[in-house]
Amino acid sequence: MEKIVIATRESRLALWQAEHVKALLEQRLGATVELLGMTTRGDQILDRSLSKVGGKGLFVKELETALEEDRAQLAVHSLKDVPMDLPEGFALVAILEREDPRDAFVSNQFASLDELPQGALVGTSSLRRVVQLKNLRPDLRIEPLRGNLDTRLRKLDEGGYDAIVLAAAGLKRLGLGQRIRSCFALDQMIPCAGQGALGLEVRADAAALTQALGTLTDQPTWLATQAERAVSRSLGGSCSMPLAAHARWVDGQLQLEVALGHPEHPERPLLKARVQGQPTDEAAARALGLQAAEALRTQGAEDYLRCA
Ligand SMILES: NCc1[nH]cc(CCC(=O)O)c1CC(=O)O
């Protein structure tokens, strides 16, 4: 196999993930791999909520341009940052085994959400986290918090918040697992579709590479994340939508749990649904996702989606 260049963002997390895939390609495929670091629009815009300036695609587009121009052949993404439908000419060809999918409670004074005093200040810019926090603790004040993981932790340490909520996977990957005071239960703070998983993207015409990378896919993660992403796609999936979707395998059954909040009125009740099945291929996994989306619709999801 020829040399593979991986296009990657330059945040510490993105570089860790790219290095991780580089090592895997070297070990498992005997490939020669180099990294090409790039800055994306999503990395530059730190002052506004991402949902207001264009959403998930912002972290991905520059990397795709590098693939298009053949300056790189592979892009490694946190799957949750990848839009539900890739632009024409690109394909998601492998999904690696998932890290811890849970959200983590991080604080210097408090061990868990339950310990936070009335009216405490929590930092997060994720609408999905906001609506679930409001549901668990209506008294909390929640303020925006953007930037890469190190920046967010620094803002916490400078005293800007009583606690913040971050993906456990990112913290663990960067060796910051000791900052996690507790993890939220999966059914209390349902993760975002794809959280904790890595997705590999190539040009759709890269047949040999597609075939080689496909062998790296973790099948249970692939099926679970297909189901999750199908929910989001069905409901019009953008990150301006406070949607949570997480599927996990329990005794051979894939259990998919979803929640949708109102984007402008986070205090309105969360819509929730749970479905399960035994999908063995992508189509069946996606069908499970559609079933969950349908269950949300029967509860009035349209009313929550209209304004987004
Ligand atoms: N939204 C940014 C982002 N993209 C991926 C991760 C963490 C790693 C992952 O979930 O795979 C994070 C940080 C966070 O949400 O706290």
Automatic annotation (TrEMBL):
Residues 4-209 form the Porphobilinogen deaminase N-terminal domain. Binds 1 dipyrromethane group covalently. Its cofactor is dipyrromethane. Its EC number is 2.5.1.61. Belongs to the HMBS family. It holds the Pfam family Porphobil_deam. The modification S-(dipyrrolylmethanemethyl)cysteine is found at C239. This is Porphobilinogen deaminase. GO terms for molecular function: hydroxymethylbilane synthase activity. The porphobilinogen subunits are added to the dipyrromethane group. Residues 223-297 form the Porphobilinogen deaminase C-terminal domain. The keyword Endoplasmic reticulum does not apply. Monomer. InterPro entries: HemC, Porphobilin_deaminase_N, Porphobilinogen_deaminase_C, Porphobilinogen_deaminase_C_sf. The keyword Transferase applies. It is an enzyme of class 2 (transferase). Pathway: Porphyrin-containing compound metabolism; protoporphyrin-IX biosynthesis; coproporphyrinogen-III from 5-aminolevulinate: step 2/4. Tetrapolymerization of the monopyrrole PBG into the hydroxymethylbilane pre-uroporphyrinogen in several discrete steps. Keywords: Porphyrin biosynthesis, Transferase. It catalyses: 4 porphobilinogen + H2O = hydroxymethylbilane + 4 NH4(+). NCBIfam families: hemC. It comes from the Bacteria.
